[in-house]
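Example record

The entry below shows one chain as it appears in the dataset: sequence first, then structure tokens.
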Amino acid sequence: MDAQTVASVKQMFGERATDDLFERGFYERDLAPVPDFLVKPVAKTLPDIVVRPKTTEEVASIVTLAAAKQLPVTTRAGGSTVYFNTVCTRQGILVDINGMDNILAIDQANKTVRVEAGLTWWRLERALNRVGLAACSYPSSAQAATVGGWLVMMGYGLGSLPYGPVVEQVLAAQVVLPDGRVRELSQTSEPPVAWLAASEGTLGIVTEVELKVRSQPESDWHGLAEFNNAEQMQDFIEQAAALANKPFNLHFSDPGCNSLRQRLGMADQRAALAYTVAFDADGTKAQTAAARLDYERCLHQADGGDLGEEAAGHEWQHRFFSLVLKREGPSLLGAELWLPIKKLADYLAEVAVFETRKQLGLKSYGHIVAPGHAMVMTMFNADERDTIGYLQGLALVKKLHDIGARHGGQPYGIGLWNTPYVKRCQPPAELAALKKRKQLLDPNNIMNPGKRYEPPLLLQPALFGLGMDLLAATTMVYQGRRGNKS
């Protein structure tokens, strides 16, 4: 970006625009601790300038300027993923919308709320609870993830099993399109608000969202089931996901995950040896009483055991802290997958075989987010300071994605790092339709370029796959740390 444009943006936004090298450096990464030697050949991650708008009009002004000069624009809010979908790939303007976090209106009678896109789900839920309402669903990263950010991701999490993905709860969304126009999109507009779902910031900047919400539950009930094997766990999950009165949340953990949680003081010895499923229900007192009976029936049919309401309540209280597992770190690598429930036990069995060969200390957990699908995270400890070992660890992540693909799975979220798998995520016709949307709304490719649709040269599937497979097959030098084996 030329000096005159930088100066112009700073004049427009004053202290809310910065080209200070130190401040811009904080925007070069998200939750993924990827070493520079891997990033720099693929992307230019340091933005030329960071802007912190407060209004939709300010967002429109910066996008209009960028469109006129064909400058890349990347939007950032919570930055709570590991895909680099909020990190620049071609420098340009970074639009930080965290300052746009107001609740604009709550309609208690019609159970709707309108908010600015930078509001976190945790703040929204607390505000709704104060007036007797609640969000229909929210992400497991609710304390950091924002309303707009989750909409433009896949938008599945806690509450998605009974209420569907967040895009189905969106009544309208205000968006600044890549040419600077401000549009109010709805389910029936052209384009529809559904185009924003999973677009990952490549079709515009969402500034406001209007959502359906629900009455605050009268009561809740939590169960925690244990199983000797993954087949029993899958049987229980399939029954629970098919219930007419679906639980608000179903969350499972394998013994690898539970044993680490036990070492961290978050689970007892009994849970550490088992596959577990948290069954969380809410609603009226009659509904939660019925849910408890449903839980007991599913548990009996799957030949499982019950860990007690105290353990279940503890699990619920820690629902936002799955990544506390990083404490054994220093960091984590892993694959997050969208996986058919009917293939869950087979997937975990193949992961167990892979663990026997590689001895990584693999651990898996996930949420059931649709009657037929789960979001599954399989992780292992890593250390980005170990350059060669970390690179080999990334190759092992690729092998986990391959295991997932053999069981009908695909990456959950794409951003930059999952672009080698983009053809696994959509059939050719669907991917072509997504590219058509991008061409229609952003013909100059200024909005979050380098993400979602095509891999860069070094991440082309053939080249990437060959390199990662060779690394994964070499004699192991991987130095990830595994708790008591550190």
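Notes for this example: The mean pLDDT is 93. The longest strand covers residues 205-215.
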